[in-house]
Amino acid sequence: MPVIIREAVNRTVLNVISNILFSEDVADLSAPGAQPFRGLIVPVLEEWSKSNVSDAFPFLAPIDHLFGSRRRISIHLAKLFNFFDQEIVQRRLARNGTGTGSKKNNDVLDILLERHAMSKLTRQEIITFLTVCTFIEYLFCLQILYVCGMFICFISVQDMFIAASDTSTVTVQWAMAQLLRHPEKMDKVRNELATCLAAGSSDFVRESDLDNLPYLHAVVKETLRLHPAVPLIPREVATNGVSLGGFPIPIGMGVVVNLWAIGRDPMVWPQPNKFVPERFLAAGADEAVHFQGKDDYTYRPFGAGRRVCPGMDYALRSVPLLLASLVHKTEWRLPDGMAPEDIDLNDCYGTVLNLATPLGAVPVSTV
Ligand code: HEM
Fold first, then answer.
1. Beta carbons within 8 Å of 196's beta carbon, 6+ residues apart
2. CATH architecture group of domain 167-365
3. Which of 191, 165, 78 minimizes the C-alpha distance to 127?
4. Is 314 a pocket residue for ligand 1 (Cβ < 6 Å)?
5. Residue whose CA is closest, atom 1 of ligand 1?
6. 153 is in an annotated binding site
7. Average pLDDT, the chain
8. Binding residues for heme, per the UniProt record (predicted)?
9. Phi and psi (nearest 5°) for 37?
10. CATH 1.10.630.10 residue ranges in the chain?
């Protein structure tokens, strides 16, 4: 039975976030079908991505608040708030010694409750913080303001959209699709992992192993070059005297930076449409095509400047770790009758750049 890679990775990503926040898994990796926690998030994101009449006619905002998606969002958010409120209640009971579970978990909730005990944070502020942390992987147009020495977060939904899907998940999915399409590259990743982990005592890939897995990182880099999760970045020209390709761009004009096209520029990348992780291993290549770039802008899958992706460092640890965990000691086979070249690498662009056809593969344990 094929596993839908995107679904499995997405559940794992959710569990990573929930464990950082309150030391619990919120998604069941083995249960098929809809997940209760995801069921709390997805309706909010769906409503967020819909247009409101007041987007075009701001004076009609009161009507949206009464009948539009803003009203439905508050109903869905109330359910999520209630979920976090229960988490707070249970943790406080455990800390008082009257509930079950561990008294101290050294997670974000513990830190927030300590601030609460010092009267530096209200319960509602804790709930707001947990909610924003949950969405931060999903949200794209968002601003975080720091108020009163503690985070109070306001989400500013711009007039475009909310990313209802998550960047790390699609990147892992693209990497798996390319590795299954190129079995010889998959073998290289697996051999590198086997060699690296044979030197240690663990069967599991750990974050500390990542420093010894250059080919794995090259695969992630090549995946981001060909399939940047966020392919288009909107910007507004902020100064006078800007020109692009000889055309003057007036101040205030909107421009769109096309990371997808930059990654496939034949002037920069030989055989631009081919999946060749080795190009990132050539002598000096790593220096020249580092994510932060040099002075040129030939490789910027996380954007650039003041608005550069703040999740970059986290993504550059979590994406390789997720990918390595998927392929280490598990062989992935394509569904019966499917050849590597049958994998559909066409993309579709909604809020992130996704595979048009979800990737399914059959895991076979090699332990
Ligand atoms: C492979 C994974 C990821 C990719 C390819 C990616 C890519 C990007 C890109 C291209 C931008 C726009 C940057 C710009 O405007 O110059 C961005 C913005 C952003 N990313 Fe990521 N991202 C990833 C993962 C993450 C993660 C894991 C988080 C949070 C934990 C995150 C949070 C954000 C936020 C909050 C912004 C908006 C920053 C702003 O507008 O000031 N991203 N990301």
1. 209, 212, 213
2. Orthogonal Bundle (1.10)
3. 78
4. yes
5. 168
6. no
7. 82
8. 309
9. -70, -40
10. 167-365
